[in-house]
Design goal:
The complex is a heterodimer. Chain A has helices at about 85-95, 130-140, 165-175, 185-190, 210-220, 255, 265-270, and strands spanning about 20-30, 35-40, 55-60, 60-70, 80-85, 100-105, 120-125, 150-155, 180, 200-205, 230, 250, 250-255, 260. Chain A is an alpha/beta fold. Chain B has 2 domains: about 1-230, no CATH class; about 240-380, no CATH class. Chain B is about 30% helix and about 25% strand. Chain B starts with a strand and ends in a 13-residue tail after the last helix. Classes of the chains: A alpha/beta, B alpha+beta.
Chain lengths: ~280, ~375
């Protein structure tokens, strides 16, 4: 390489510059969690895939990574479900309809739930982890006939509350989802069911690390291929574009190589404490 | 090949300045050699050498007239091309939302006089990390664009140098426009010049030079061979990435952690470290926010913070992250080592922690888990 042949586009807006989006609807989901619907002030809505995340910016407060929880269909606003756990998420959950926030993205890898077409699809959600799964759940609802069983295991910590309860009821009643409240008990039911077929199951899980690890171990112990257990990990994502280094897990940049990983990719990375 | 005299260095700086470059070179400041704007030979560290060892850096009088008689300067090119604090965007509140304004690109491209092979290999690492992937660092690209490099061969490597172990050489191999080898002997004080680019040839054509004598070329080879043989340290790179990953649970990390102060010096002086944080700061009227990219360090407590706690709470996990990333993670991520063998992390560590000694200790602890090399005892 010579000193001159570095070719980066230095005229387009930088990837660290947010775009203004307006809050067009807001819903309080639980005591600490709210869902915002967003449309861009200028230009087209960003094209995204289920499982990806955006960097949401509250003016004067800061920016955090938040998964996309809805808005896949043409004309639908971008949807984010945010839990109030820090200064930025607090500011974002306190926004009102008409407020403008900044959005960068989408970033990261996707669930690719359609890989399960023809087989069984299981969603495992812990707490706010249901939000990043929701676009894929809705995809499964729209294309329900292309799957055999669709299972949702959903647990939350005491006092945390449950998200999207009205929708979950619909998924169960109208779309034939098998819904278990509580991940551990639900998992036992699933793997002990006589019709359980490990080769036909794709699992998408999002929740606390420990919940996902237990689920992945339980499933792979029962002969589910680790490639077909996908987990969405949370680490300290600052830039979203693989440049700032914060979210590294050994050689993986969680923001560009993740957040969705298959369990076989994660086994060596989750084995060591504090990696 | 051409040669040029001392006066031609002044000509060279003037030509670069006239061509619009802001010229940076080595200068003595606060008892160290640092990279700063220069306007000619008078600014350069003439006759200044250095002594470097673990936790030790001293300038010394060489007793000769060499302009480039020191080893690695306190910093590489990083502070100029990838500043510790960079404004990314200014965000102003408006009645309907906010406006965004990115700063202008720097008006003048940079020229560097005196860059070493380790500096250029570190630059190539930054080019790969910051400019060659799906998302590029725009500010780095703007600063990097059009950079002119006058590299210099190392004549006198120091005690913490180990570039040869890391595939480098005292003589710049690539990535320069012009490369000088400084010769000081009975035949006089002169520089043998190699041209690395068309721009380099154009600049050199405006400077007084002469055809290099055969004896000068032989002198260059001899000086480089001597420098190559006088590395202060070595790093055994055989199977190193695999070894580092395999050592994740080694008891040796506790030994390092007992000494590491988590001061972040190593990451600040490392020419390839690229971790940053985004900081938004708002004025008192709450109407304008500036988004800055600032250097960060994996040794900092907040570095791995997510709501609920930090991922790497212990000192040993942070040291492990740093050295494993340097010697193994970069290979997986970018296909190259994150260490160029400049030795700065060894020199500037107040606890005299030595990346070459730690890698060797990890290698030994894997080979025989009963032995943990007490690297603390080696501090000089």
């Amino acid at each position: 390489m010579t000193a001159t042949d570095v070719a980066a586009d230095v005229t387009a807006p930088g990837p660290m510059t947010p775009r203004p989006y307006r809050v067009v609807a807001r819903r309080q989901d639980t005591h600490d969690t709210a869902t915002l619907d967003l449309i861009p002030l200028y230009g087209e809505q960003a094209h995204w895939r289920s499982g990806q995340f955006m960097m949401l910016y509250a003016f004067g407060v800061g920016e955090i990574a938040v998964s996309i929880s809805g808005g896949a269909l043409p004309g639908e606003p971008l949807r984010h479900t945010i839990r109030d756990v820090g200064a930025v998420s607090h500011a974002l959950t306190q926004t009102k309809v008409g407020d403008v926030i900044g959005v960068r993205g989408p970033f990261g890898t996707s669930w690719d739930a359609m890989d399960a077409v023809g087989g069984d699809l299981m969603f495992i959600a812990g707490g706010i982890g249901l939000a990043p799964l929701r676009p894929s759940i809705l995809e499964a609802v729209r294309r329900r006939g292309e799957f055999r069983r669709v299972i949702l295991l959903y647990g939350s910590r005491p006092g945390e509350g449950f998200l999207f309860t009205d929708e979950i009821e619909e998924w169960e009643r109208l779309h034939g989802f098998t819904v278990h409240q509580g991940v551990r008990a639900g998992l036992a039911d699933v793997v002990n069911d006589p019709s359980f077929d490990p080769a036909m199951l794709l699992t998408l899980a999002c929740g606390p690390d420990i919940m996902m690890e237990v689920a992945a171990k339980t499933l792979t112990d029962r002969a589910v291929p680790p490639q077909k257990v996908r987990l969405s990990l949370e680490r300290s994502m600052h830039c979203g574009i693989g440049l700032c280094g914060h979210c590294q897990l050994r050689e993986a940049f969680m923001c560009v190589d993740g957040p969705v990983f298959s369990y076989d990719q994660l086994v060596p990375l989750l084995a060591t404490e504090e990696l | 090949m051409r040669t040029m005299g001392l006066a031609a260095i002044d000509e060279l700086v003037a030509v670069l300045d006239g061509a619009g470059y802001e010229v940076f070179g080595p200068r003595v400041r606060d008892g160290a050699i640092v990279l700063a704007p220069i306007s000619g030979v008078a600014d350069l560290p003439r006759g200044v050498g250095d002594e470097q060892d673990a936790a030790r850096y001293r300038l010394r009088d060489r007793g000769d007239d060499r302009l480039f008689g020191y080893a690695a300067a306190a910093q590489g090119l990083k502070p100029v091309l990838f500043p510790s604090d960079e404004l990314l965007v200014r965000i102003r509140k408006t009645p309907i939302g906010f406006d965004l304004e990115e700063p202008e690109a720097p008006a003048r491209p940079r020229a560097f006089l005196g860059a070493r092979d380790c500096d250029l290999r570190a630059l190539a690492v930054h080019d790969t990390v910051l400019s060659s992937r799906e998302f590029a660092d725009k500010s780095y690209g703007q600063r990097r664009d059009g950079v002119f490099v006058v590299a210099v061969s190392c004549a006198d490597p120091c005690g913490t140098c180990f570039c040869v172990s890391q595939g480098g050489s005292p003589k710049p191999g690539d990535g320069y426009d012009l490369a000088l080898t400084e010769l000081v002997d009975d035949a006089g004080h002169r520089f043998v010049v190699e041209v690395g680019s068309e721009r380099g040839a154009e600049v050199l054509a405006q400077v007084t030079t002469a055809e290099a004598a055969e004896s000068d070329l032989a002198a260059v080879d001899a000086q480089v061979a001597e420098a190559t043989a006088s590395m202060g340290r070595t790093l055994d790179t055989e199977g190193l990435p695999e070894l580092m990953f395999a050592a994740a649970d080694s008891p040796h990390w506790d030994t390092v952690a007992a000494r590491c102060l988590a001061c972040t010096n190593c990451t600040l002086v490392c020419p390839t470290c690229f971790c940053t944080s985004v900081e938004d700061s708002t004025d008192l009227s709450m109407s304008t926010t500036e988004r800055h990219r600032v250097w960060d360090s994996c040794f900092g407590a907040r570095f791995s913070y997510i709501h609920g706690g930090v991922v790497r709470a212990s000192g040993k996990s942070r040291y492990r992250q740093w050295i494993t990333h340097k010697l193994a993670g970069y290979q997986q991520q970018f296909g190259l080592s994150g260490c160029v063998g400049c030795g700065r992390c060894i020199t500037w560590c107040p606890a005299a922690i030595d990346i070459t000694a730690e890698a060797a200790a990890l290698r030994a602890s894997l080979a025989d888990p009963e032995t943990d090399l007490e690297t603390a005892g080696e501090a000089r």
